[in-house]
Design goal:
Layout: E1 3-6, E2 11-14, E3 18-22, H1 26-31, E4 41-45, E5 50-51, E6 56-57, E7 66-68, E8 70-76, E9 92-99, E10 102-103, H2 104-112, H3 118-121, E11 127-128, E12 133-134, E13 144-149, E14 152-158, H4 166-173, E15 184-186, E16 194-195, E17 201-206, E18 210-216
Parallel strand pairs: 3-15, 5-11, 6-18
Antiparallel strand pairs: 1-2, 3-4, 7-10, 7-16, 8-9, 8-15, 9-12, 13-14, 13-17, 17-18
This protein binds zinc ion.
Zinc ion (ZN) binds near residues 20, 69, 71, 100 and 189.
Length: about 220
Amino acid sequence: MNTVHLVKSNEDIIVPKIFCLGKNYAKHAAEMKADVPQKPVVFMKPSSAIVHNGAKVKYPAMTKDLHHETEIYFVIGKEGKNIRKEDARSYITAMGIGLDLTLRDLQTELKNAGNPWLISKGFDGSAPISQAVPVDGVDFNSLELNLTVNGKQRQHGSYKNTIFKIEETIAFISQLFTLERGDLIFTGTPEGVAQLVPGDRLHAELIGHTSIDVEIG
Ligand code: ZN
């Protein structure tokens, strides 16, 4: 379902686009045996990839290595193009916690062949998102995320450790793409990505703000 729920206005709005950042935490880049990028690594998921709290995500038959990546996401509140870094914050209306579910075996195969990794990242159910809470007065550097799988700790991260901050990311993306109300930007995952199996229950949290529960079916 291609919508995000805004808690402040109690409405579900259409998500036109989902941008995601790759390798935006140094320790995750290291665990992927990749260099820290010099500019944002941007890719997209179709908005049909979105599922909400309580969803059961079907384990795709095409993979043997479904991975979790837990990520803070931001919601764009108004249209903009060529947005300056200094103005970027005013384009963000809300934030939440999301999962960038990834078919790691397929992604590796596609990367090695120099092909787009879309199908390993954009499949149905690959973008579980929580409700989005307002960013009013929030110091982004205070944001922390957490993931448990079947009650066991898997990922913990602090936004302050992201390489490219959301303001810089918005300035970068909006040079080439018009940002629209409802667009989501996933800010990358911290270290600790790992395999999921059918029956796993995920609880991802933007600590103190919002959370989501998802089951792998
Ligand atoms: Zn990711």
